[in-house]
Amino acid sequence: MNNLKNEKTISVGYTVIMGMGKTGIASANFLVKQGVSVRVMDNRSTPPGLKKLQQILPEIPYITGYFDVEQLANAQEIIISPGLSRHEPALAQALAAGIPIISEIELFARYVNAPVVAITGSNGKSTVTTLLGEMAKKAGWQVQVGGNLGTPAIELLCHPAPDLYVLELSSFQLESTYSLNPKAAVILNISEDHRDRYAHISEYIAAKQTIYQGDGIVITNADDPIVAAMRPPHRQFLSFSLHDNQGDFRIRQHQGEYYFARADENSFTPLLPTKKMRLQGTMMRANALAALALGEAVGLPPMLDALQTFRGLPHRCAWVANKQGSDWFNDSKGTNVGATIAAIQSLEKPGQIILIAGGDGKGADFTPLTDVVAQHCRACVLIGKDAPLIANVLKNTVPIHHSDSMEDAVTQAATLAQLGDIILLSPACASFDMFNNYEHRGQVFEKAVVKM
To answer: How far apart are the C-alpha atoms of 402 and 382, rounded to whole Å?
Structure first.
């Protein structure tokens, strides 16, 4: 990594990295190897990456428990953790003083040495990122996959260069990214999220739209009017749709079966029967179409066997077990209303779902759950801080039950379920009111299910 060349040389001085999470430690380690003077700050007294920083970079100055405004004012540049808002007072003051603030993704963009696929959206981005990575591997490509999903982008940089980088990017990362020029980029969908960060959904949309910067191929979801309207003019683009009358990649009936298809002006090419995918449901089909479109945009042949063998992601509508004649699914990664709606619809079991939901809703409006819960759910078991808010929205829709722990929620759901039902954990909320993160929440759920 030491021989990576920065085409945009940074001036003499020091760079402040704010945040000791995965991206902060990765950025510090990378910059030190490039000979850049680095300081690290975190306003938490015991940040998660402190021990690792002390182990791998013992010589680096750091501050915990607060942000040093004076040091920020004298920095040449600030690299911000995705979890920190630019409206944080110390950052706002630095911005007002003209100190550049960038993301770890912007740092990656300065050094990147191969084509990039960039993927964002309210829901499905981890799945599409992973699926496209699998497709590239099956084609024999050297590919590096990460970003918001797993490995920080800056750790993916390598020599010799890979054939492709595939990055999942969040709105938080995109806020402070300015020069990334993906060869192909997609916004999968838009639904309300992060109300604790954005005063209005228009701010959230503006952050997402940053992914379309540059001159690469734009991929759009023809079924999402907000996304369709975000396509920059005068750019090459491909689209996807679950309908048979629109989209370059679409679902089309052929010889009595539904197929993933590539459409041309007056014809279409059937690619794979949808029933051959291991994972079913409308959301997964949309994800597959998006991956096919992104693959074509970067010259990847349609790797249909990857679609057939793809098993999905942990904590993302993952099958856990069949207990007492009911299937249990872990969708703990469903941390917003849109994700939960997609998970419910993807299971395609009208009236036969027991939904376990609740947590920290981050100011979200739960009203959009009403119709889909009414159509698909038999009952809801609610947990966490915002359970009363969800209950108030759904009280006239289905029977509502409350639990003070995940273990009790699993027990109640098992009692409510009938033969052939599905019990789905899809919280529509963040996890931090009760758990360390969504993975921890999912693990507690799965452990409780297995113990039944």
So the answer is: 5
The 422-425 sheet, strands edge to edge? 318-323, 326-330, 422-425, 353-357, 377-382, 400-402
Instruction: Give the SS3 label for residue 268.
Output: strand
Res 3: pLDDT: 36
CA distance to 270, 319, 324, per residue, from 441 (Å): 40, 15, 23
CA–CA distance, 129 with 150 (Å, rounded to integer): 11
Active site residues per annotation: 125, 148, 194
> Do 186 and 282 belong to one domain?
yes
Q: Are residues 150 and 63 in the same domain?
A: no
Residues near 170 by beta carbon (within 8 Å), at least 6 away in sequence:
82, 120, 148
Q: Tokens at residue 263, please? A: 């459409």
First to last CA, the chain: 49
Q: Are residues 366 and 331 in the same domain?
A: yes
Structure tokens that stand for 130 in this block: 């992973």
Q: Would residue 146 count as lying in a domain?
A: yes
**Confidence (pLDDT) at 118:** 98
Q: What is the CATH number of the domain that holds 375?
A: 3.90.190.20
Predicted pLDDT of residue 345 = 87
The CB density around residue 404, as the number of other CB atoms within 10 Å, is: 11
The residue assigned the tokens 């693959």 is 295
Q: pTM to 2 decimals?
A: 0.80
Walk along the chain (452 residues) in steps of 10 and give the mean pLDDT of each run.
38 85 96 96 94 96 96 96 91 94 98 98 92 97 95 96 98 95 97 74 92 97 95 95 95 94 91 87 91 98 91 82 93 92 86 96 94 96 97 96 98 96 96 94 97 90
CB < 8 Å & 24+ apart, contacts of 199-207: 204/171, 205/230, 207/171, 207/172, 207/174, 207/175
Range of the domain at 81: 14-99
The answer for residues whose C-beta is within 8 angstroms of residue 43's C-beta and 6 or more apart is 64, 65, 66, 67
Token digits of residue 432: 């931090």
Residue 228 makes CB contacts below 8 A (sequence gap 6+) with 220, 221, 222, 239
Q: Tell me, what's the pLDDT at 10? A: 39
